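Sequence in, structure out. Go.
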Amino acid sequence: MIKKTLVIATLSLFVSCSVHTKGEDVKVSEDRKNTPKEITNGILIGPAKMSDLQQEPFNEWFTSGYENYQADDDVINQIKKHIKKSTITIFMGTWCEDSQNQVPKFYKILKQLDYPLKKVTLIMMNRNKTTPGAFEEGLNITNVPTFIFYNNKKEINRIVESPVENLEQDFLTIVSGKPYKHIYAE
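Output:
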């Protein structure tokens, strides 16, 4: 048992928050939204809600990241002018340090915006960037977290793994329609 645990721990050191694959950008199919989440080896997988991240064992990093983040109020007020038609899909891994760092901050921004969480789809991925419901299919999810912004069900842009400037500034750039390239864009 100890040997097996050591092998798993060693292998996990070699897995990062990125896998590079190609795919077409399409919206998550509505018929897959009801696939239940599951916890496998301490990793939350499948559709989830912010409240799932506020539970053990995820609440340790989520709560501190959420409570300690304060977005720039001027930028928040600018985002409010552009966000009404947008919906957001977040792909993340509870095992991924970048997700643990960025997702709580993103939810804090949403709270400061008074943005309705019913317009946010949260998808938890395993270390291979897959889900039992294949939510990632056709969306070219190469790194987590990935925040995909939609207007009228059409992707307008995404923040991949880490923001270029900071989360709220990148958020504003995207929803205001200004040119934006995430850190992995060619």
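Check: The chain has one domain: 21-175. The helical segments are 2-13, 50-53, 59-68, 73-80, 97-113, 167-175.
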